[in-house]
Amino acid sequence: MDFLTTNAPILIVAIPLVAAFIIPLLGQKGDGVRNGFTLTIFGLTSFLVAVLAVNVHDVGIRIYAFGAAAADLAVPQGFIVPVRIIFEVDAMSMFMGIIVTTVTLAALIYSLHFLKGQTGQARFYSLMMLLYVGMMGLAFTGDMFNLFVFLEIASISGAALAAYRTNLADAVEGGFKYIVISAISALLVLFAIGILYSEYNVLSIAAIAHFIQYTHLDMIALGLLGAAFAMKLAGVPLHMWAPDTYTVAPAGSTPMILAASYMSMYALYRVTFTIYGGFIDTGAIGWAVIIVGLLSMFVGVMMAVHQTDIKRMMAYHAISQGGYMLLGLGVGLAVIANPAALEAYGRDAMNGGIFHIINHVFYKALLFMAAEAIFFRIGTRDTNKMGGLARNMKWTTGFYIIGALAIAGIPPFNGFASKLLIYESVLKFNPILAIVAMFVSLVTLASFAKVFYSAFTGPPMPAHKEVKEVPKSMIVGMSILAVLIIFFGLFPGLIVDTIVAPATNALISHASYINAVMGAVP
Amino acid sequence: MQSVPANFPFLASALLIGIAFYIILFKRNLIKLIMGIAMLASGVNLFIVALGYRAGGNAPIYTNVPPGPMVLSVPQALTLTSIVINVAVLALMLTMVIHIYRHTGDVDSEKSRKLKG
User: Fold this and answer.
1) Which of A310, A378, A513, B41 could link B86 by a cystine bridge, Cβ 3.0 to 4.6 Å?
2) What percent of chain A has pLDDT over 70?
């Protein structure tokens, strides 16, 4: 067990990485062998994630230094800066790790039947594992350069997954937009890393945060990093790729690409809170995040209302919900230098923003899967061509209702818990922001109700009279998420205390992140 | 080394990045767009590799090393990694453009648009 807990950070990334290249080979032996192998490997990885999560919860920040005499020896004897590649896992990294692992598990099970009989399945699973590696690496990495490397791994595999159905012209187009945006943003990140390296001669996030002087060059680097990550997380006005890519990506991979965009949000928080968290005037940075959040919320929902493509509508809602997270964290960042305001509402706002990430990924993944289940059966995403599907697709209808109520913030589903936290705390910060947030939530409910009526109720369309429920593995994949949504909605206090609040603390107390690596400095 | 000003490589990389952004924003041909991204990558790589230059330093190769300080090889290692990654990105982008061309018969970004709104 000791061996497992010590080496879990590297094993979680290494095992799926190796498996990604074995999967195509096993594909030659038959579909059953390959699917069994993929599920076994991923089950093992999920177990390691659970072990590491418990460990991080108990002992705090975990360090893994590559090739060091001891895994937690970040700064070797005789050096004053870390010279090795380091994985640094704190509560926030682990929180994102849990989200990514759960969504990947559900997507993997969902895909078993979804892909049945299609060509290129081995490559699909292989890319899925690579996307998982990219996301987990992004969560765990302790140095800026590997942040770039894992960002690129996630981008390349995500774009290839989005364009998986190359027989459809729109799929390739959506994938192409994603890779162009990803390539540009990753190069901006690399440029900013170069600027930071030129000033401080270190790449470790903790060491940069330790030495940073907040010069003008640092502000340019922050601007580049902020723009790059805002582009990747689909914040308005840099959101144009998201509706296209989410719409065309096959169901199993849409939730994972969604999770990948929240990994960019995590990277944004890591940079703003950990590296620039000690800056005297974080108010301006916080307000910049809040404004992007407000724009995303409002523009996203307004664009969603009139969509007739069901996945496109959900994609615009994903942009809009991303705004809530930015709003909550932005409020926290704006008041981080003011302890009284931080205790009064800043911490709650951040709890809400972080809690909303996990809630949103779960219900939006469920909604995307339900939409793709309809596409799987009737071959169209146009809501005007659907009708009366509730008669024959009872499970899918049920999952859609759960997801729609959760996204609209109706109790007892999880969206309500996190949105309430955001409303209450943001109201104390600035009432106008809270009013906009509530208004957006109402429009969200209206737009999902509209789609529900046109797709699921009423008389069945003549073309879809014989439509059947989707196969079992797809239902199992969706029910994992549905159960979690209801569980999170019923016991929000438990979830906030065990995983959300530690993540918030990890972001606020950037000194502990620095000391975990630089602590041994004489 | 007096003939070349010390910050000449940085000016060159700024010029490359500027031209690359012009191409990415204003050119409609998808192949040109990819060329723009390749130029952006070259500009960033040049910037990082120029950071690693130290006047009078030796290459960090330990056989037959002349006396004097060695340069730290981190920027070179970063640039190599970044070049390899960018080859993968460009290859994937070109593959997708071939698929787009097969579907629409055009590589003009305005004419090959299926997704709108």
Assistant:
1) B41
2) 99
Instruction: State whether residue A308 sits within 8 Å of chain B by CB.
Output: no
pLDDT at A3 over 80: yes
Please check whether residue A266 is in contact with residue A139, taking contact to mean a CB–CB distance below 8 angstroms.
yes
CB spacing of A312 vs B117 below 8 angstroms: yes
Please state, in angstroms and rounded to a whole number, the distance separating the CA atoms of residues A33 and A296: 44
Cβ pair A105, A40 in contact under 8 A: no
Q: Which residues of A touch B85 (CB under 8 A)?
A: 149, 152
Residue A84 CA to its chain's centroid (Å): 28
Q: Across the interface, do B115 and A170 touch by the CB < 8 Å criterion? A: yes
B59: closest CA of chain A, how far (Å): 18
B115 and A248 in contact by Cβ < 8 A? yes
Domain residues of chain A, as ranges? 280-490
Instruction: Report the alpha-carbon distance of residue A152 to residue A149 in Å, rounded.
Output: 5
Query: ipTM of this predicted complex?
Result: 0.93
Which of B51, B82, B101 to probe by mutation at the A interface, max A CB count within 10 Å? B82
Residues of A in contact with B81 (CB under 8 A): 145, 149
**How many helices and strands, by DSSP H and E, does chain B display?**
3, 0
CA A278/CA A404 separation, integer angstroms: 40
Nearest by CB: A156 against B92, B114, B117:
B92
Query: Got the DSSP string for A76-115?
Result: -TT-SS--S-EEEE-HHHHHHHHHHHHHHHHHHHHHHHHT
All structural domains of chain B, each given as residue ranges with its CATH number in brackets, are: 8-54+70-104 (1.10.287)
- Name beta bridge partners: A63: A88
Q: Which residues contact A311 (CB under 8 A, 6 or more apart)?
A: A246, A247, A254, A368, A371, A372, A375, A381
A64 strand-pairing partners: A87
Q: Do B115 and A247 touch (CB under 8 A)?
A: yes
Note whether A176 contacts B30, CB cutoff 8 Å: yes
A147 CB within 8 Å of a chain B CB: no
Residues A482-510: tens digit of each pLDDT: 999 999 999 999 999 999 999 999 888 88
Q: How far apart are CA B33 and CA A111, in angstroms?
A: 34
